């Protein structure tokens, strides 16, 4: 296992981060613990979760993922907790999740409630990386192309948000700060306010990045490299599409069947592009999974790639893919497909 320094911190994180959004819905507590044990055995020391998980959650199961991780931490003991980099996220507004908290925003009260509940669920005294899951403001994300309007009612509260997180860092409840599903404007606003007021600087941005969605390369990649921010790449397999298993139709009980809101991964161009990547992988003696994960891992601006699985076999296949190295010639062939069918799943 290889490790990178989490930008602006002294933390060394594995280049693979275990994603956990299936824990509590698609995976039982026993299965979750098995995945966590297996990941640690393979050298993964970085775990990502969120207060809203599991995906496909509701008022009855939200928070289960954090609780499963918390019961696992209790099982392995607090001494081993020190070797784990634990990341979680606070939910933002406008996602139909009133059951989490009212109101869903980044006010001081909401942030404190969210942090304290996550600490309780995770059965830990501190969170290594605390992230805002998506922005408070209206912006184009989750497959939306373009921005037809801005939220005139939104108040730029980034200074206030950073002030609250500064207090929580000083209290020792969180160590470092990150954003998620952000764009260049938002990242630069956070950086500006941090520098201007000597407040905590964001260490990471967690955004989608894959062979089917390379939009991060435009704008955000330069910001990451110039401002020393690390990308935690999520959906590196395009919500499972880049495994190739859906090319003949969406598999029964797969994420794409269970969670139809993710239709951005199932349009015609995703099928066409995935088939081309699969053909390229076969020519190289690889699976399309190996090609897809190796591509993300190759990028200089990626600090860690988040992988999730519903079985140990899937997890092991994904981990092994990080041993694959891509040549310039292979990257050139990948770029030809990208030019032919650019970013079919934004």
Automatic annotation (TrEMBL):
Keyword Transport among UniProt keywords: no
Domain NADP-dependent oxidoreductase: 16-338
One annotated GO molecular function: oxidoreductase activity
Superkingdom in the source lineage: Bacteria
Keywords: NADP, Oxidoreductase
Claim: Chloroplast is one of the keywords in the record: no
Pfam families noted in UniProt: Aldo_ket_red (PF00248)
Similarity section: Belongs to the aldo/keto reductase family. Aldo/keto reductase 2 subfamily.
Protein name: Protein tas
Organism the protein comes from: Flavobacterium psychrophilum
Organism placement in taxonomy: Bacteria, Pseudomonadati, Bacteroidota, Flavobacteriia, Flavobacteriales
